[in-house]
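Suppose you are handed a protein chain with no further information: no name, no annotation, nothing but its sequence. What can you learn? This example shows the usual starting point.
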Amino acid sequence: MKIEMWPDIICPFCTIGKRHLELALEQFEHAEDAAIIWRSFELDPNAPDEVEGNVAEGVAQKYGISLEQSIESQKDVARRAQAPEMILGALR
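A reasonable first move is to predict its three-dimensional structure. Written in structure tokens, the prediction is:
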């Protein structure tokens, strides 16, 4: 089985997805037959090299959402990153 991964190193969901894949392969009977091919992908090629403000402010501005919504979104990402085993277990 060939699995191609196309992550952007700045994307937290890509990192979380990588961990979910690792956990799934640990439970997969034929994991040794899985070939993971890493590719690179840039989600936002027009992103500036440096940004002012914090992540929540940048996300709110980029996606046109309120700062409060962005803060909650960042908290959700943090929760997902802290407990990938629990999330993967819930998908079974």
